[in-house]
TrEMBL record:
Example GO molecular function: pyridoxal phosphate binding
Species the sequence originates in: Streptosporangium carneum
Pathway: Cofactor biosynthesis; biotin biosynthesis; 7,8-diaminononanoate from 8-amino-7-oxononanoate (SAM route): step 1/1
Family, per entry: Belongs to the class-III pyridoxal-phosphate-dependent aminotransferase family. BioA subfamily.
Gene3D superfamilies per the UniProt record, alphabetical: Aspartate Aminotransferase, domain 1, Type I PLP-dependent aspartate aminotransferase-like (Major domain)
Site feature location: Participates in the substrate recognition with KAPA and in a stacking interaction with the adenine ring of SAM: 5
Residues holding pyridoxal 5'-phosphate: 98-99, 222, 280-281
Record's protein name: Adenosylmethionine-8-amino-7-oxononanoate aminotransferase
Residues given in the record as substrate binding sites: 40, 125, 251, 279, 363
Subcellular location: Cytoplasm
Length: 404
């Protein structure tokens, strides 16, 4: 078995999970771990939720799958209407995964404009397929090995955390210099996820919206990691009060139950494209769209804003001591995201041994020990911050080997 971002054989063990319930994972050896990762940020309601289980089993009685070419079904129609209402973007293309959603967004932009170059900012991550890799950070990103095979796009500097008028001027100069060749600007709103878990000022997002309008360029918001409340707003774009021309959604869309993503766009973009040349085999899968609809209903009913605010306060307080650890460069929190950034790449296996010793599951990478817990985390949040602080204090004690 070849695991993600791992060599064969892997330097670190893969722990066998026998059950997932609520916010806890039960390993085959009987250990219970609080999941601080929400299964890569997707299981926002926790595991084994009765509403989501029922949505799947009810749909299974009717059909597990049917092709979407020339056919449709109620769960997909209902989900598309819900997403259109939530985002203000009336055209919805359902895809298999976040990376594919980004590929579809890029195709939309290329077909609409007739141009084939994109602008983004350094430090970003948009997926592992070739179109998505081409707009990930070209130097420090995880896909630098493929740089010679990827299209050359335009990269602005890394967006600062705080507001800086000079950076807005840099964005304006960069967009203006390339406007005639750009199809779109693509960014992760407010939070750069797997590229470094960085947060930036919403004013830069507003500035990009204005620049896109000024130069006749589309704005693509990759909300795959930030969508559905993770940052404290329903979508990252809401921090800036803007709406993109194209939006990518995924991860938490199904509450972590199945792989599903969506690319949404304005009526103007859809009309200008005509026939979109993309059609995944499992597009609009009935099981996935049924559980996604149930997950969004559940999100609308639960007090997620209050839950995320409580998580934000708990992470801020619980990680404060980690900032004083010698190996720590920065501690930052936004919404239900807590990040401990280290000076040097961490030994993944060693950090996981520390946090698992505290009954917690985390997946650190590069120089980051971070958490994005389920919104239903409750009092177990203290266990996560205690484990992260212990991991931070363990840095630099004896020899270790960094990993991914």
């Amino acid at each position: 078995m070849w695991h993600p971002y791992a060599a064969v054989p892997s330097h670190a063990p893969a722990h066998v999970v026998s059950r997932a319930d609520g916010v806890r994972l039960t390993l085959a050896d009987g250990r219970e771990l609080v999941d601080g990762m929400s299964s890569w940020w997707a299981a926002i309601h926790g595991y084994n939720h009765p509403r989501l289980n029922r949505a799947l089993t009810d749909q299974l009685q009717d059909m597990a799958h049917v092709m979407f070419g020339g056919l449709t079904h109620e769960p997909a129609v209902r989900l598309a209407r819900t997403l259109a209402d939530m985002t203000g973007l009336p055209r919805v293309f359902l895809a298999d995964s976040g990376s594919v959603a980004v590929e579809v967004a890029i195709k939309m932009a290329f077909q609409f404009t007739g141009r084939s170059r994109l602008l983004t900012v350094r430090g970003g991550y948009h997926g592992d397929t070739f179109g998505a890799m081409a707009v990930c950070d070209p130097v420090n990103g995880m896909h630098h090995l493929f740089s010679g095979a990827l299209p050359r796009h335009v990269f602005a500097d890394l967006p600062p955390a705080e507001f800086d008028e000079a950076y807005l001027a840099h964005l304006a100069e960069t967009v203006a210099a390339h406007a005639g060749e750009l199809a779109a600007i693509i960014v992760e709103p407010v939070v750069q996820g797997a590229g470094g878990m960085r947060f930036y000022h919403p004013a830069y997002l507003r500035g990009l919206r204005e620049l896109a309008d000024e130069h006749g360029v589309l704005l693509i918001a990759d909300e795959i990691a930030t969508g559905f409340g993770r940052t404290g707003e329903l979508f990252g774009c809401d921090h800036a009060g803007i709406r993109p021309d194209i939006m990518c959604l995924g991860k938490a869309l199904t509450g972590g139950y199945m792989s599903l993503a969506a690319t949404l766009c304005t009526e103007r973009v859809a009309a200008g494209i005509g026939v979109l040349m993309h059609g995944p085999t499992f597009m609009g899968n009935p099981l996935a769209t049924a559980v996604a609809g149930a997950s969004l209903d559940l999100l609308a009913e639960r007090p997620w804003r209050e839950e995320v605010k409580r998580i934000e306060a708990g992470l801020t307080e619980g990680l404060a001591e980690a900032a004083a650890a010698p190996g720590v460069k920065d501690v930052r929190v936004l919404g239900a995201i807590g990040v401990v950034e280290t000076h040097e790449p961490v030994d993944v296996r060693r950090v996981q041994d520390v946090v698992m010793g505290h009954g917690v599951w985390l997946r650190p990478f590069n120089r980051l020990i971070y958490t994005m817990p389920p919104y239903s985390i409750g009092d177990d949040l203290d266990r996560i911050t205690t484990a992260m602080t212990a991991a931070a204090r363990s840095l630099g004690r004896g020899p270790g080997r960094s990993g991914t």
